[in-house]
Design brief:
There is one protein chain. By secondary structure, this protein is mainly alpha-helical. Helices cover 66% and strands 0% of the residues. The protein has five helices and no strands.
Length: 106
């Protein structure tokens, strides 16, 4: 649902809201695939750190998404199609990645 919402918003040129909806889709994906435990209130940086630590293969994408989200949502940067496309492309790579979590031996 978040992805469909993001596409609708992007089609209307509402890129700031589209970035947020697509980021929510990524978070939900990571929760559903047991990379992150569902926990409201995480910051974008926390999501990137925790998700990247759990699955290093998606760490760079998560950092890029978090930086983009923070830039357009809190940094007063006017979001454009470029920012949305950055988040959308990262989402597609994350969706299709084999999310193999790193385990730490105790």
């Amino acid at each position: 649902e978040y992805r469909a919402e993001a596409e609708r918003l992007a089609e209307k040129g509402q890129y700031k809201e589209a970035v947020r909806a697509r980021f929510r889709a990524i978070i939900r994906e990571l929760e559903q695939r047991a990379v992150l435990d569902p926990r409201p209130g995480r910051t974008a940086g926390e999501i990137a750190r925790e998700g990247g630590a759990a699955v290093p293969a998606i760490g760079a994408d998560l950092r890029a998404v978090a930086e983009t989200f923070n830039l357009v949502w809190y940094g007063r940067h006017v979001a454009t199609r470029t920012e949305y496309d950055t988040v959308r492309a990262a989402d597609e790579r994350i969706r299709h990645a084999r999310l193999v979590a790193v385990t730490v031996d105790a």
